[in-house]
Here is the input.
Amino acid sequence: MSDVMIDLLLSALWETVLMTVASGLISLVAGLPLGLALVVTAKGGIAEHLWINRVLGAVVNAFRSIPFIILLVALIPLTRLIVGTALGTWAAIVPLAIAATPYYARIAEVSLREVDRGLIEAVRAMGGNRWTIISEVLVPEALPGIISGFTVTLVTLIGASAMAGAIGAGGLGDLAIRYGYQRFETTVMIAVVIVLIILVCGIQWLGDRLVVQLDRR
Here is the structure.
């Protein structure tokens, strides 16, 4: 590849990383509390409230059932309202974050549900309140699963960000479509695929290493 294409590839990689990290952090900040809410308000939870649980579950399921490409288009008015444009890297972060949040919430919910109920009952017996149970039992005990689920979410976001490139979001997906597909530059397409594989493997490796370190504690 020429020096110009290498520069374009590096720029596209940075845009993909930015979209993935920004939307991933938003999904973590919003999705983990949502997952906690689904667990604690469920039947037998520490703050059982079935009506709230059903509403939250319905909202999460509704967003998860929408294919990302459709959600991407449907959220264009909201994206314009928040960012001021529907094109570019920052604009793509809005639908990516909205799509990833319910996805991660369900993953976090599964990890939180696997926490030994005996530990929860023991803290309750010692007079622990709901916040103590959440902060001292639920989250710490489920942390390896939470991190593992976040790693999966980041990998999924990489694929979604490439899809967002199809409508002008930038990143590796945009580069692959504009040069690799539309201009029939096979070298560019192969380079993009290799970079995506390395990026995914790198994130998965880091996530797995962190989970191993947490399991040793």
Q: What stands out?
A: The mean pLDDT is 87. The first helix runs from residue 3 to 40. The radius of gyration is 20 Å. The chain is about 80% helix and 0% strand.
